[in-house]
């Protein structure tokens, strides 16, 4: 993008944040950040990964009547509310869902907080990432998608040279071939001819990792991802997590942060997660 095109796109995102989207007030966060906060709050308060506690927080959020919630997440949280254990609900929903509706992006959009306290323990990070997905999304494309994303974020936080390739090497042949095939070109520095913006987890990860890793600034990464359309908030959330780890929190514009009601809590919890690490 040229400098003038980037400035124009920044203006579009500023308008979205400043005036609100989805018919919600300015500064409103969507289900992506709300669920990520459930995970982050649990980590900060429990001082460890506790999937049952996270599941309880998801159910409490579900009961609050959120304006936006994905189909698999809604069905899984309903099962949790009615008695399923944290590691049962998502499995049941997955088994009852047909191909094309069984591997959404609803767990990868929220999992990044786990990469902070477990950044230096890659094996443990794979485990907690997969378990966090299993609460609502048990498909291996989802569980390993969370693992690859969080390993990539951890690599960026550790300033490694090849974070995505290292992530793929860490999960190895355990990850589904479809996921690895979609992400391997990015690890080699290649940009796919087409980037999809659907809610399919493989599409979302490929597009968001591309924008998070291939752009020149945090602003450009987030603006590019959001302005692609499609599942805008989720692709933007994933790309934002990658860009945040790559460029640092100070690279995010104050004019964006000032419009977010939860900005203060987000910073406070981030500090607590760093201390846990």
From TrEMBL:
MF-aspect GO terms: hydrolase activity; metal ion binding
Coiled-coil annotated residue ranges, if any: none
Keywords linked to the UniProt accession: Hydrolase, Magnesium, Metal-binding
UniProt-annotated binding residues for Mg(2+): 30-32, 231, 233-234
Keyword flag ATP-binding: no
Family: Belongs to the ADP-ribosylglycohydrolase family.
Protein name: ADP-ribosyl-(Dinitrogen reductase) hydrolase
